[in-house]
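Lab notes, practical 5.
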Amino acid sequence: MIYEHKRGATLDLSGRLTPTEGQSTNFTNWIGKAQIRTLNDEVIATLTFSWLNELTGDLRIRSSSPTNGWPLGVAEVDVKFETPAGDYLYTTTQQIMIVREATRV
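Output from the prediction step:
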C-alpha cells in the first residue's frame, strides 16, 4: 500500500522497527537518519528522526520544513541506522504519493 501525503501538510509518520530473526529488539544508542527522494534520486527533504521508544523500536520521522514545494508524484523514504558497533542497517524502502492539496486559502 502506498501512503498518500498532501503537499503543504506536515509529514509526520511513526512506526515500529521489526528486527530480523536473531537481532536485538533493544535499539538503545542506535542513530537514525531519513530522507525522502524522488524516483530520480533527487533529495526532496532530509527528515527529522526520533525514537518514541528505543526498547520497543517505536520511531518517528517528520518533515521539519514546509512541504508546499515538494514535487507531485511518487517519492521514496527509508531510515538508515548506525548501531553502537558502527554497523549500518536500512529499513525497507516505502513509497509515498505526494498529491496536490485542494484547499489553498
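Observations recorded by the TA: The beta strands are 3-6, 12-16, 31-38, 43-53, 58-62, 73-82, 88-90, 94-99. The CA atoms of residues 47 and 63 lie 5 Å apart.
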